[in-house]
Amino acid sequence: MIEAELKARLSNPGAVRAALAARAAPTREIYQDTYYDTAGEDLDHTGRELRLRSVDSGEVRSHLLTFKEPAVDEVSGSKPEHESTVGAPRAVDHLLRSLGYHPIVELIKECENYRLSHLGRDFLATVVEVPEIVGTFLEVETMAEAHEVDKALAAALDLLGELGVTAGELTTELYTDAVRAARAAR
């Protein structure tokens, strides 16, 4: 499956939050992400990602291992995604390191997740703040088969429009790149 996703850097986060809250109740979660790569950053150079994520909802803590393949849509950066829950994140970290992968960046995402339907598709809309990056972001994503990515992205763009997000706010900026740049500027 492909994660058909659009991301925006919001100019009016309050209005977007209000529009989302009119459609669904948010769940708040903290994501602690660790991205892994080889010493030569082979995954990064080929547009792939290997991530271990811990999700803390305040009541439950869960862990996910995710591998993303290169983008199938260059405009949005949408990628095939393979994800599995993990019961022992320390063991997975050890396994990845033993296979030659090491953490290249770790970051925290403060998220408000809204699950909703739009144009017959199930969406996860996430308002994101990363403490090391200035601004508030919105991600809207839906899972799609390869032959329906364009249709899924069109629905995502329509949803963004209904939420008051403009085309000028769309971005393909990666949090990992922005965090690296912020750290380098210190």
From TrEMBL:
Domain of life, per lineage: Bacteria
**Could you tell me which Gene3D superfamilies the record lists for this protein?**
Hypothetical Protein Pfu-838710-001 (2.40.320.10)
**CYTH domain mapped to chain residues:** 1-181
The record's annotation in PROSITE patterns points to: CYTH (PS51707)
The protein depicted here goes by the name Adenylate cyclase class 2
The organism named in the record is: Krasilnikovia cinnamomea
Highest classification ranks of the organism: Bacteria, Bacillati, Actinomycetota, Actinomycetes, Micromonosporales
